[in-house]
Amino acid sequence: MPAPPASTDDPPPRRETSRRPGGRSARVRELVHRAVREQLVAEGFDALTVDAVAARSGVHRTTVYRRWRDVGGLLADVLDAAADDAWTPPDTGGLLGDLTALNEEVLAGLTEDPPITMALIAASFRSPDAARALRRFWDDRYRRCAALVGRAAARGELPGAGTDARALLVAATAPVYHQLALLRVPADPALPANAARAATLAATAGAFTLPADGQRVAG
User: Fold this and answer.
1) Number of folded domains in the chain?
2) How far does CA 149 lie from the centroid of its chain?
3) What burial letters (b/e) apply to 82-115, b meaning 16+ CB within 10 Å?
4) Given a cut of 60, is residue 25 above it in pLDDT?
5) Nearby residues of 73 by Cβ (< 8 Å), 6 or more positions away
6) How confident is the model at residue 160 (pLDDT cuts 50, 70, 90)?
7) Where are the stretches annotated Disordered (predicted)?
């Protein structure tokens, strides 16, 4: 679940700017998105302005203001665009292998250079629009990853009753996010496998089994 890493509920409709334009419009969007990422990594959220993005991208400021309106609109569109891909969860043939491979992708995303994923996550704490867009991104990724849990159930790796896919996926990936995004400690190469193993053991023991009515327990 590469991070900028889903629920079974439908996400809110995307902003108008998330539609995939073509031709010159697509080129403008690409230039602006690149400028947003570069500006955010180079100078941080406080220096991210529409004028700064326009200057860095070479796109006229009037065009940027008209299409994206403000910093929130820019960030939301960058994040929404990240979900417009063909990514699918890994398929190694087993739940432990799948979760380990998934965690390795998360770790790679959080330690990439330049650190755009970390910068976007940080920006989501400063911009409500970015926070909503990031939530849509997570929801999309968890939704796609539900297939990973479904395959494990079909192979008989999980208890016969239904498994809460999102709860299992969160449990598997959360240690990676906690260590790298919250504690900011150096990446431990063993972390993806260790976190995946713990989640797999819990899942096979029924820790994420849904109640008889198939609904998640509130809270």
Assistant:
1) 2
2) 18
3) bbeeeeebbeeeebbebbbbbbbbbbebbeeeee
4) yes
5) 15, 17, 129
6) confident
7) 1-27
Here the CATH number for the domain that contains residue 30 is: 1.10.357.10
> What pLDDT band is residue 15 in, cutting at 50, 70 and 90?
very low
**CA pair distance 41, 88, nearest whole angstrom:** 27
pTM of the model: 0.84
Q: Which helix (H) or strand (E) holds 148?
A: helix 128-154
pLDDT of the residue at 161: 76
d(CA 3, CA 189): 17
Whether pLDDT at 103 is above 50: yes
Identify which of 134, 163, 133, 171 has the alpha carbon closest to the alpha carbon of residue 146.
163
Q: Which two tokens stand for residue 26?
A: 């697509």
Range of the domain at 68: 16-83
Q: Are 6 and 144 in contact (CB under 8 A)?
A: yes
- Can you give the length of the chain in residues? 219
